[in-house]
Amino acid sequence: MSNTEQLREMAKTLVTPHKGILAADQSPRTMNKQLEALGLPPEAELRRKYRQLLFTTEGLQEYVTGVILHDGTIRNHADDGTEFSDLLIAKGVVPIIKVDKSTVPHTNFEGEVVTQGLDGLADRLQEYYDMGARAAKWRAVFTISENTPTEQNILFDCMTLARYAALCQEAGIVPMVEPEVLFSGSHSLERAEEVTTMVLQKLFEQLQWNNVDLEGVILKSSMVLAGSEWSEQTSAADVAQATLRTFMNSVPPEVPGIVFLSGGQTPQRATENLDAIAELEAQEGGFPWELAFSFSRGLEQPVQEAWQGKDENIEAAQAALIKRLQLNSMADQGTYDPSME
Ligand code: 5MM
Questions:
Q1: Was domain 3-340 assigned CATH 3.20.20.70?
Q2: Which residue, 25, 75, 78, 295, could crosslink 262 as a Cys pair with Cβ 3.0–4.6 Å?
């Protein structure tokens, strides 16, 4: 099979119907903040134990096609010495590596950030391929305010995403391109739709300019929501309509799949919105792309609450993960029942 065919096949596998992707790629800094919120010390061993809890969850593979890992996690191992990547591969779960090196302020553009990490990326991708990674993720972040995002900020990050995607495909790795339009802010739903459409149009323009094979790409997107500080929160049906319109106006049909980040919504709200999107899909007789979830906080928040850093809570924490995954798998089919919460 040619490289292109393999990439296309892997991209399709990642968006297998009714399954999602677990985003467990918190940087040590973010993971430490999450530990501290539980009253736990920000220690490497606790971070390892937490990832072990997630990846050893029985039945994980029934609901996820892949797990996104941070560099420190793909190099880490379970108690018995099994590398985390091997543990996932043995379950039929694809290790996905986060390859961006986070954001830095965009010089001369107040209030905006750009994502870094292109230097040495081709070599790093080769190394990750050898460790078993078959997909990679890169996140760009856009803030909505009266004056942002600027055209320059959108262009810079989309050019970077396209370069990263081209390097991934060259290395036999499926790029998961994640332009996150932040939920935080006091913008309306209409403004969120306008910005997300602008960002996605620029992103696909840049991917095409760079001759990236769109059939071998996964889009990781925000849902289109009014800002967290906006006077009224958007109903699930309105989120679904706005999100669909945005994608129809920006995402080429060749793209095999779009997966959602949860973006700071409560786990329940993220699931409810996913369900409304799937219901709309059924009403419309299907979308050109497969849709799925790729939540981090939206899946892990209840797990962390149940765990509390205690070994005796591992079983309860794993049960909380399976429950959240089941609910999202149902939502992906438009059959989520809030009374099951
Ligand atoms: C886990 O968060 C990921 C990485 O964040 P940091 O580098 O800031 O720690 C992030 O890219 C995540 O994969 C997506 O944003 C989805 O997470 P949410 O919580 O929005 O579902």
A1: yes
A2: 295
